[in-house]
Write a structure and sequence with these properties.
Layout: H1 3-39, H2 45-66, H3 68-90, H4 104-117, E1 123-129, H5 132-139, H6 141-157, E2 164-167, E3 172-178, H7 182-197, E4 212-218, H8 223-240, E5 244-246, E6 249-252, E7 255-258, E8 265-269, H9 273-283, E9 288-292, H10 295-304, E10 311-314, H11 323-332, E11 341-345, H12 350-358, E12 363-366, H13 371-421, H14 427-445, H15 453-462, H16 475-478, H17 486-493, H18 495-504, H19 513-524, H20 545-560, H21 571-579, H22 588-609
Parallel strand pairs: 4-5, 8-9, 8-10, 10-11, 11-12
Antiparallel strand pairs: 1-3, 1-4, 2-3, 5-6, 6-7
Helix pairs in contact: 1-2, 1-3, 1-4, 5-6, 8-13, 10-11, 14-15, 14-20, 14-22, 15-19, 18-19, 19-20, 20-21, 21-22
Length: 610
Amino acid sequence: MDLSQLRQQIDTIDRQIVDLYEKRMDVSRQVAEYKIETGKKVFDKQREQEKIAGVKALTHNDFNSHGVEELFEQIMSMSRKLQYQLLAAHGSEGRLPFIGVDELETECARVVYQGAEGSYSQAAMRKFFGENKLCNDTCGHEAGDVALQTLVHTIRKYIRKADMIIRYGGDEFLLIMPDVSEEVFVEKLQKIQRKIHSVHMSQYGQMQLSISIGGVMMGDESVEQAVRRADKLMYQAKTQKNMVVTEEDAIDGDHRIERSKIKQQLLIVDDSEINREILAEMLKDDYRILQASNGEEGISMLQEHENDIALVLLDILMPGLNGFDVLNLMNLNHWIEDIPVIIISSENSSDYVRKAYELGASDYVNRPFDAKTVYQRVYNIIKLYAKQKRLLSLVKDQIYENEKNNQMMIRILSHIVEFRNGESGKHVLHINVLTGLLLEKLAHISDKYYISGDEQYLITTASALHDIGKIGIDEKILNKPGRLTKEEFEIMKQHTVIGEDMLKHLEFYQDEELVRYAREICRWHHERYDGRGYPDGLKGDEIPIAAQVVSLADVYDALTSERVYKSAYSHDVAMEMILNGECGQFNPLLLECLKQIAGEIRFSLEVAEE
């Protein structure tokens, strides 16, 4: 059977499932109506039993008389079998063996129906979350597909045939486990979390799967209500990463944590005690609550709990610091970037609303308010910010890993040159540290050379390649223990030109800023401010500032390090020699920077070497 035939069969089966949808929903509606009625407690026990019996009889007679139940089971069985065949035969081209989001309502109808039939007493619901979008963005869609398949296959190894795994959006899944005890349920959660986290996708470098799980036991409620509860727990798990959270506690690997300790914390700032208590009462079941009776107290709590506040509920009209003052201070301290604010105020003028949004408020709610609406807005905004923080954290980790790998490769290459040159293996590290210190101080004391943080990083990284041209110099000259002859020194000076030529003839990356800085540094790091350097005799600011900074760092480290032709000078002697012009003339501004960082140099080098 080829791929197209398998897909046609699956499409046919899917249409049959849809045809059954309306009949099943009729049953689920009757069950829902019954639950609403019993919720009002208007029936006595006898009438309640009669109602249950009536619904059971209706569902049993309707479905069994038409053979729909047996047909449905056959169709679902065939669908799963075909999907497995397709996946096994065609790998990532096949449909993943889990239920798509479009089929969720059909499956939920099935669960509700089975609940009414009494085929199980409870269902366990758990919601999973993974970072598939980030995986797609950083490693490609093929890696994302493989990650999803690996996730689902791993889960399926530890669940039963009766359990259903449903794709509930791009990165989220829903697992429904009928007729399972709470103890077994929690054990399954732990096992799935551990097994998935132990999977390494070696074909995509260091990629490792992690999963955040929220799990609930479904009682006398609809599937939708149970999913909503599981969703809240899942987002609590996401704030800690790779954790299982149930309604009783949180599980991190083999460690149990009281769930109240991982609840997110809200800060309510309002001068009215009644207003604060109303909000606290609405939110206390799912959040830890801090209260501040005025703006000053609110700012104090933000300072104390800055990293532990998920959201601020803020009044506008307060004595002392009002709500706008608090927002201004949150902007000044950059708290607003990480802590969302919902304004809750009786003031509803358009000027107030506009100003609140301009100052960074995420939402504006007028009093009097609907409690459910406020709760949902709080939940939605925290959920959104949690996802943004998680994605930012993952992106930062990815960037850091890439930068670390790039620096590692540059340092390995530089170390090879140093090894051939007989220099200390710490020379490149020292140049890197000194260049960074000088650039940071230069940016602080003067705006003559505008060097952004990104440019400082690039120049510091490129400094590692300053002597790469020495790879083209004869070893006998490089490692000569005595003074070089005039001819030998002329050959040695060529390492500046050789280094630039090596980088200039790279087939790729010529437009990259890193390569441009590296070329400047290679060629001109032996130029001097008075024009007496080499190879081109540049003077003053004809020498690019990147080369000027690395030149000063190189001279300092050469003086304070042992070489085959000399012993190391002390820090104080080296500083005196440089400032007295014994090593050539340098930019006076850079000499001032060197004097200001003199007290930091030795400590910074020791820390870097550790």
